[in-house]
Design a protein that fits this description.
Structural class: alpha+beta
CATH architecture of the largest domain: 2-Layer Sandwich
CATH superfamily of the largest domain: Pseudouridine synthase I, catalytic domain, N-terminal subdomain
Number of helices: 6
Oligomer: single chain
Order of helices and strands: EEEHHEEHEHEEHEEEH
Number of strands: 11
Number of domains: 2
Amino acid sequence: SRASGHDKVRLDGKLVHQAPSRRSATWLCHRSPGENLLPPREPDGDAAQAQTGRDAVSERLSRRVGRRHISISPMPRIDGGLELLTSDGELAAKLQRAVRGLPMEFGLRVRGELSAEQIEGILGGELDSGEKMQIESCEPSGGEGSNRWYKVLATGANGRDLRALVERQNALVSRVLRVALGGLKLERTLARGHVRQLTDEEISSLLQSQAGEADTAD
């Protein structure tokens, strides 16, 4: 049966807070690197094996809440951080368009310190395809020895292209984490593997960029 707005929903034994009287739900997830956000694609006949200990975040939410969930601009499986999932198909399409115009922050871990030339190449944003990413800044943010962290600010970026861009500068990337998307930030209080439901105000804020683009087009 489906959960009502007054039901307490738990995901892997953890309480999931729901907004009252919502027909659909949109979630912010703190995904661990390597954790499946969506079900893995398996050949027919291997479905039972795929379910054993490998349930994706979206599957666990769908079983608890009673609706199928869709991911919005997901990070590569080997990376992680802030992810969005919604059970509203129409909203998913709107959010997918909206995130292309939103500022984002990424935590980038590389092997060794980036040179000035490598940082310049990252800021240039040019991919092998000839397309350009909109990179606002790339600054050191910690680490030592062979593991160095950089804070990257970009607009409308995705994790796959950011990883490809940095690797194009002959840098060895070990991790890319999305830590902010528009006005949403990955709070320290939200542990890895946990989710929280977005408020209507947060969803509206994410959609504002799409509305602004439509007004400009008119």
